[in-house]
């Protein structure tokens, strides 16, 4: 049993989490507790080990986040080297609560929405024991109209939301939907850096007659807008938030862990730094970090054979036709080398009387080596087989396998691929086979044994809760049969994160055709753009209304609409899709695009409206907004268009070719449809079926 536990730990994923029993009555190893004389409290905050106040009282290096400073006069506890004020530390939940200053942007009072005071408050946790808690913290923006988002340490966009203000009588205490001056968004796993950005939208051009008439979504505005990361249970939005003009701090929940090694197995190998040596502590995998690919670090993790990366570890085996120890140089030998060695030894006669003894010893040594080698290979194979079986069961493979018989009788062709088949099809996921990188994984060009060419999608991560529902979702998705939906051909469940196999759509994404890349920009005529919009809407309407149960896509964008050989639309990338609950709309995940905390079918409608805008204007979802006082700033295409439509300038901002080739009535009705779809109140948006029907009528008039 102990050996099995060690084996599971050796291939398990992720980083270390120290779990200490605070109520232990027996003595523990000194290395796992604070030395005598160390302060255990600062103000109202208790400081448990591995945290400590001052040198020698904490675990590890100074800048790892475990060393704290205490300002006794003010009762203020901060993280040394980072400066964040600590409000609470919990051992059982491995969490810490720190205070974060809210970012603030205040505007002028003459209606121009020009930022006159800006204070953006980042928080960097790089190299520390901390990560932002994706379960208990969220990103919030208050004030209107406003656009708030944040980037990570590399400057890459993470998430954001947009808020507008309806009349104050519609605002509900505690609500934060995006149309009430407050919006919110969930944050991803593994986030260690946060740099917020605040902007505005809906600027009016001075000198126009329409300046007197303000759009409904700009009915009320606030002097200042704020953005901050915050404890989801602590934050409660109220009308008094609108009146703020000064600075304030909010609590944010962080996950902490001992991150000295990629896994428990790796940590145990260094007895000098291993944290969980006490009989009252245990090493657990935290599940909060991406896997380290040991196969790419040969100097640190030597492997001179076939290296297979596994969560938190790696497997190193000799190439086919050889055996031995692949972790040492020249450790793999051809399988027939031992036979040659035996012939050489047994053919050497030291003397006639000793020949039989030498031969017997040589054969015995050879058999011993052979048995050990066979045992080693057998153990490796059993480990791989057990890992594949565990992943297969974990991903719902048993349920899916049971249902495949009934699916086949109904004409549904869906295959469960083995990991070996996927490896051969993609040439071991070779970089030369990469077709593109999506928001949820990498897509490879695969060639199956029958010669058919497919698209193989390898996701980056999967939530444990989603893994349990994976088989059920595959059963539903495999039965989708719509000419404008990319066909799901099968999947592989013998890996930690399931691999999906789709039909290959040859002409790439709609995004490339609209915005460029190898000369494809603007290749679609206005009539073709309207056709692609109608076909895509028809596919989404089918998923919402005709599939049983209904399916929410949740990641509708131009990059996820592909074009086949005839430039017909095919909706793809169901990496974020979820089955809608029976008799309801809601799905439990963040909706940054529409400013809501819950996703519904109306969230797909909002996202699809942005795609239609890209087709009509030729602009990207985030575009430079021209301004008379400033050269340019990044803005939302949706809000930029809404502001133009409110002033009657919707035709002006459309692509020149679209304006010239489509009838004015078609342009006006398309703009009206987009405005309805972009309503901040989800209940005011049309259904996807209504959108599809409207686009079909517009296409017939074009």
From TrEMBL:
<keyword id="KW-0067">ATP-binding</keyword>
<keyword id="KW-0325">Glycoprotein</keyword>
<feature type="transmembrane region" description="Helical">
    <location>
        <begin position="356"/>
        <end position="379"/>
    </location>
</feature>
<dbReference type="InterPro" id="IPR017441">
    <property type="entry name" value="Protein_kinase_ATP_BS"/>
</dbReference>
<dbReference type="GO" id="GO:0005524">
    <property type="term" value="F:ATP binding"/>
</dbReference>
<dbReference type="InterPro" id="IPR045274">
    <property type="entry name" value="WAK-like"/>
</dbReference>
<feature type="binding site">
    <location>
        <position position="457"/>
    </location>
    <ligand>
        <name>ATP</name>
    </ligand>
</feature>
<dbReference type="InterPro" id="IPR018097">
    <property type="entry name" value="EGF_Ca-bd_CS"/>
</dbReference>
<dbReference type="GO" id="GO:0030247">
    <property type="term" value="F:polysaccharide binding"/>
</dbReference>
<dbReference type="GO" id="GO:0004674">
    <property type="term" value="F:protein serine/threonine kinase activity"/>
</dbReference>
<keyword id="KW-1015">Disulfide bond</keyword>
<dbReference type="InterPro" id="IPR008271">
    <property type="entry name" value="Ser/Thr_kinase_AS"/>
</dbReference>
<dbReference type="InterPro" id="IPR000152">
    <property type="entry name" value="EGF-type_Asp/Asn_hydroxyl_site"/>
</dbReference>
<keyword id="KW-0547">Nucleotide-binding</keyword>
<keyword id="KW-0723">Serine/threonine-protein kinase</keyword>
<feature type="signal peptide">
    <location>
        <begin position="1"/>
        <end position="25"/>
    </location>
</feature>
<dbReference type="InterPro" id="IPR025287">
    <property type="entry name" value="WAK_GUB"/>
</dbReference>
<keyword id="KW-0808">Transferase</keyword>
<keyword id="KW-0245">EGF-like domain</keyword>
<feature type="domain" description="EGF-like">
    <location>
        <begin position="291"/>
        <end position="328"/>
    </location>
</feature>
<protein>
    <recommendedName>
        <fullName>Protein kinase domain-containing protein</fullName>
    </recommendedName>
</protein>
<keyword id="KW-0812">Transmembrane</keyword>
<keyword id="KW-0472">Membrane</keyword>
<dbReference type="GO" id="GO:0005509">
    <property type="term" value="F:calcium ion binding"/>
</dbReference>
<dbReference type="InterPro" id="IPR011009">
    <property type="entry name" value="Kinase-like_dom_sf"/>
</dbReference>
<keyword id="KW-0732">Signal</keyword>
<dbReference type="InterPro" id="IPR000719">
    <property type="entry name" value="Prot_kinase_dom"/>
</dbReference>
<keyword id="KW-0418">Kinase</keyword>
<dbReference type="InterPro" id="IPR000742">
    <property type="entry name" value="EGF"/>
</dbReference>
<feature type="domain" description="Protein kinase">
    <location>
        <begin position="429"/>
        <end position="698"/>
    </location>
</feature>
<dbReference type="GO" id="GO:0005886">
    <property type="term" value="C:plasma membrane"/>
</dbReference>
<dbReference type="GO" id="GO:0007166">
    <property type="term" value="P:cell surface receptor signaling pathway"/>
</dbReference>
<keyword id="KW-1133">Transmembrane helix</keyword>
<dbReference type="Pfam" id="PF00069">
    <property type="entry name" value="Pkinase"/>
</dbReference>
<dbReference type="InterPro" id="IPR001881">
    <property type="entry name" value="EGF-like_Ca-bd_dom"/>
</dbReference>
<dbReference type="Pfam" id="PF13947">
    <property type="entry name" value="GUB_WAK_bind"/>
</dbReference>
């Amino acid at each position: 049993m102990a050996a099995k536990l060690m084996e599971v730990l050796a291939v398990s994923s992720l980083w270390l989490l120290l779990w200490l029993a605070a109520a232990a009555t027996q003595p523990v190893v000194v290395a796992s507790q604070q030395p005598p004389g160390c302060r255990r409290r600062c103000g109202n905050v208790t400081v448990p080990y591995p945290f400590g106040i001052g040198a020698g009282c904490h675990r590890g290096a100074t800048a790892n986040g475990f060393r704290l400073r205490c300002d006794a006069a003010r009762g203020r506890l901060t993280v040394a080297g980072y400066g964040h004020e600590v409000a609470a530390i919990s051992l059982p939940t491995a969490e810490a609560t720190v205070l974060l200053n809210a970012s603030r942007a205040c505007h002028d009072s003459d209606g121009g929405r020009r930022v006159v005071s800006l204070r953006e408050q980042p928080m960097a946790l790089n190299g520390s024991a901390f990560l932002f808690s994706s379960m208990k913290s969220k990103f919030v923006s208050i004030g209107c109209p406003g656009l708030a988002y944040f980037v990570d340490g590399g400057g890459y966009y993470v998430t954001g939301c947009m808020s507008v203000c309806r009349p104050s009588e519609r605002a509900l205490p505690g609500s934060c939907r995006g149309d009430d001056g407050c919006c919110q968004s969930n944050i991803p796993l593994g986030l260690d850096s946060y740099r917020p950005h605040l902007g505005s939208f809906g600027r009016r051009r001075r000198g126009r007659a329409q300046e007197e008439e303000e759009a409904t979504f700009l009915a009320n505005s606030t002097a200042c807008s704020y953005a901050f990361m915050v404890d989801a249970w602590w934050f409660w939005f109220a009308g008094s938030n609108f009146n703020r003009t000064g600075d304030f701090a909010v609590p944010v929940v962080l996950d902490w862990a001992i991150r000295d090694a990629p896994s428990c197995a790796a940590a145990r190998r260094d007895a000098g730094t291993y944290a969980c040596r006490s009989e009252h502590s245990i090493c657990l995998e935290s599940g909060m970090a991406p896997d380290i690919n040991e196969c790419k670090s040969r100097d640190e993790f030597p492997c001179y054979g076939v290296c297979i990366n596994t969560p938190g570890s790696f497997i190193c085996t000799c190439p086919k036709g050889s055996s031995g120890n692949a972790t040492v140089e020249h450790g793999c030998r051809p399988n027939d080398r031992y036979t040659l060695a035996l012939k050489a030894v047994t053919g050497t006669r030291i003397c006639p009387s000793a020949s039989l003894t030498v031969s017997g010893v040589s054969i015995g040594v050879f058999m011993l080596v052979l048995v050990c080698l066979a045992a080693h290979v057998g153990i490796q194979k059993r480990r791989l087989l057990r890992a594949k079986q565990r992943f297969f069961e974990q991903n719902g493979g048993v349920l899916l396998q049971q249902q495949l018989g009934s699916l086949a009788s109904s004409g549904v062709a869906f295959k469960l691929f083995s990991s070996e088949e996927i490896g051969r099809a993609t040439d071991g996921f070779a970089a030369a086979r990469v077709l593109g990188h999506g928001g949820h994984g990498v897509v490879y060009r695969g060639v199956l044994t029958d010669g058919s060419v497919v698209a193989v999608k390898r996701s980056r991560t999967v939530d444990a809760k989603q893994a349990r529902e994976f088989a059920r979702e595959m059963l539903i998705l495999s039965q989708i049969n719509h000419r404008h939906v990319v066909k799901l051909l099968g999947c592989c469940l013998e890996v930690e994160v399931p691999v999906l196999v789709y039909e290959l759509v040859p002409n790439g994404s709609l995004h490339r055709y609209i915005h460029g890349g190898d000369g494809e920009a603007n290749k679609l005529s206005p009539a073709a753009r309207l056709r692609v919009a109608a076909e895509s809407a028809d596919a989404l309407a089918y998923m919402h209304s005709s599939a049983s149960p209904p399916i929410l896509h949740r990641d509708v964008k131009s990059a996820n609409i592909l074009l086949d050989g005839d430039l017909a639309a095919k909706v793809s990338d169901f990496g974020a899709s979820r089955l809608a609950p029976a008799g309801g709309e809601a799905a439990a995940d963040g909706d940054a695009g529409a400013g809501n905390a819950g996703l519904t079918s109306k969230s797909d409608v909002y996202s699809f409206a942005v795609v239609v805008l890209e087709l009509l204007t030729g602009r990207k979802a985030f575009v430079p907004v021209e301004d008379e006082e400033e050269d340019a700033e990044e803005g939302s295409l949706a809000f930029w268009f809404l502001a133009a439509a409110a002033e009657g300038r919707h035709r002006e901002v459309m692509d020149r070719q679209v304006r010239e080739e489509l009838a004015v009535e078609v342009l006006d009705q398309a703009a009206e449809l987009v405005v309805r779809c972009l309503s901040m109140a989800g209940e005011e948006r049309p259904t996807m079926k209504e959108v599809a029907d409207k686009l079909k009528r517009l296409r017939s008039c074009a």
